[in-house]
Amino acid sequence: MLSVSNVDLYYGAAQALRGVSLEAKKGEITCVLGRNGVGKTSLMRAIVGQQAIRSGQIALDGSDLKGEAPYTRARRGIGFVPQGREVFPLLSVKENLQTGFAPVKRGERTIPDHVFELFPVLKSMLSRRGGDLSGGQQQQLAIGRALVTRPNLLVLDEPTEGIQPSIIKDIGRAIRYLKEAGMAVLLVEQYLEFCRELADKVYIMDRGQIVFEGVGADLDDPDVRKHLTV
Ligand SMILES: Nc1ncnc2c1ncn2[C@@H]1O[C@H](COP(=O)(O)OP(=O)(O)OP(=O)(O)O)[C@@H](O)[C@H]1O
């Protein structure tokens, strides 16, 4: 599905990613963990086309995404839930969801039923402004909006950040449902237990590099956790 090979990324002279390689497969949850500032967001932005890479390759189903704009990548089936959610505060919940229609063919511009099945709160708040929702509701809206684009690969950047535990559970349930429906899910997290419960595959980053690769259960190992303690 998604294959990242040997990617280097720079901001001016500062190198943020060093030879990063990873894979995210269909029907699996792949989790990228790491402390603040190690390059997780840079990697996700590179995958969705919001940040150019210096070298290496990012490929979807064997086809190189080099030079493709975020819009084209969305049409190819990459959905993105950015860090901080980026909900439009003055648009209604319904309008926020409809912004996900842009990469979808004209005849298919409907909100999929599973968005409201996974997050019933969105249905009851369709006419409310995005900015009036709680942080947790906004996160559900951001995930709903990404699902409207009909992704095969869903990239989520810290979906649990600043969210109350009951909504974290709902988000975890939704992610598991999407995996079971055959989606590839790539998840950036700092919340270790959330990854431990969900992840099929785990990568840990430190200073722009992948320093550990394993399965969810490996996160019980104190030597592995060492990469994550400050
Ligand atoms: N637009 C930018 N311009 C210059 N440097 C940047 C930019 N974005 C990120 N960086 C730097 O690149 C490095 C990696 O940042 P990045 O946001 O990818 O890390 P992160 O692991 O996602 O951190 P966090 O968990 O805080 O989001 C950091 O040193 C950061 O300061």
Automatic annotation (TrEMBL):
Residues 2-230 form the ABC transporter domain. Signal peptide: none annotated. SUPFAM superfamilies: P-loop containing nucleoside triphosphate hydrolases. Coiled coil: none annotated. One of its GO terms (molecular function) is ATP hydrolysis activity. GO terms for biological process: L-amino acid transport. InterPro entries: AAA+_ATPase, ABC_transporter-like_ATP-bd, ABC_transptr_urea_ATP-bd_UrtE, BCAA_Transport_ATP-bd_LivF, P-loop_NTPase. Keywords: Amino-acid transport, ATP-binding, Nucleotide-binding, Transport. The keyword Transport applies. Belongs to the ABC transporter superfamily. NCBIfam families: urea_trans_UrtE (TIGR03410). This is Urea ABC transporter ATP-binding protein.
